[in-house]
Write a structure and sequence with these properties.
330 residues; Quinone Oxidoreductase, Chain A, domain 1; single chain; six-stranded parallel β-sheet; Rossmann fold; alpha/beta; 11 helices; 27% strand
């Protein structure tokens, strides 16, 4: 079957290839992929940024988000059958959405929201799971709390805004001038045009900040939190708790060293820092599907590329100009 595989780590490491069709284990669901979406995580994995933590045997098929139709289920699988329309973010070490088919652990799969097309559903799993786990599990956001979300027009930011509003939070976000009205329409209570304003001069006393931009933004974000507030970063540096999530507790000292500066700065300011890396969960996707079908949340897409132009789609995402998710379709 056709796929896009990482042959070596680096910007030119993703190539089109013919690969064997996936084998189906007893707990697997075989899916005919109708659409997949591209995330910054795909670039990071392709470039080898996680190669010491998540070890893939090259060549391996890239892609973390998909929607499609079940072709076959393993002997131990209950709850899915051939013909079901599903969506998923396959677990680490079993990714491979940039292909015609994929075998996924059934625990990572959920029925596709019936109100969404395959393109729309493929744009949802990773960002929706990240939003849910960051806001509900890590931050435990409650009604009336104040949440700042950076890059609100992006795939992750636009999803987090919607979920934070559903949870009852007061939401502020940063965005480019061209995207101010778009993020307001998603529910943001306060929009900071980063081309005109420094967010540290506009907001203060926040309970939670979700940062997806990097070290400079993260360090500044600590200063807008109230005492005890929490800054969550999805781009690092990783903290010791991440070693536990990976099941590699021996890496705790390394993670501690990598995040020592930002954790020390947070302690000095009386706030907290947490690195966040989402995990696959079919049960959470099932919960999120109800929010999409109820109209509480909606996917935000920038554009779609045909499957054979997956490399062009990756390049477009790397330009950093996408206003929403990029999908590839078959």
């Amino acid at each position: 079957m056709k796929a896009f595989v990482v042959t070596h780590y680096g910007p030119d490491g993703l190539k089109a290839a013919d690969v064997p069709a996936p084998s189906v284990g007893p707990r697997d669901v075989l899916v005919d992929i109708r659409a997949a979406s591209i995330n910054p995580l795909d670039k990071m994995v392709r470039n080898g940024e996680f190669k010491q933590l998540i070890k893939y045997k090259r060549p391996f098929t890239l892609g973390h988000d998909l929607a499609g139709v079940v072709l076959k289920v393993g002997a131990d699988v209950r709850g899915f059958q051939a013909g079901d329309e599903v969506y998923a973010r396959p677990r680490d070490r079993r990714i491979g959405a940039f292909a015609e088919q994929i075998a996924i652990d059934a625990a990572d799969v959920a029925l596709k929201p019936s109100s969404l097309s395959f393109d729309e559903a493929a744009a949802v799993p990773l960002v929706a799971l990240a939003a849910w786990q960051a806001l509900v599990e890590v931050a435990e956001v409650r009604p009336g709390q104040k949440v700042l979300i950076h890059a609100g027009a992006g795939g992750l930011g636009s999803t987090v805004i919607q979920l934070a509003k559903h949870l009852g939070a007061h939401v502020a976000t940063t965005a480019h001038t061209n995207d101010v009205e778009r993020v307001r329409a998603l529910g943001a209570d306060e929009v900071i045009d980063f081309t005109q304003q420094d967010f540290t001069q506009v907001v203060s006393g926040y309970d939670v900040v979700l940062d997806s931009l990097g070290p400079a933004s993260l360090e500044k974000s600590l200063t807008v939190l109230k005492p005890g507030g929490l800054a969550i970063s999805v781009v690092g540096p990783p903290d010791p708790a991440f070693a536990d999530q990976l099941g590699q507790p021996l890496l705790k000292p390394v993670m501690g060293l990598l995040s020592r500066k930002i954790r020390r700065r947070a302690r000095k300011l009386g706030v907290r820092y947490s690195f966040f890396f989402m995990r696959a969960s079919g049960s959470q996707l099932a919960t999120l599907a109800t929010l999409y079908d109820a109209g509480t949340m909606r996917p935000v897409l920038d554009r779609a590329f045909p499957f054979d132009r997956t490399l062009d789609a990756m390049a477009y995402v790397e330009q950093g100009k996408a206003a929403g998710k990029i999908v590839v379709t078959r």
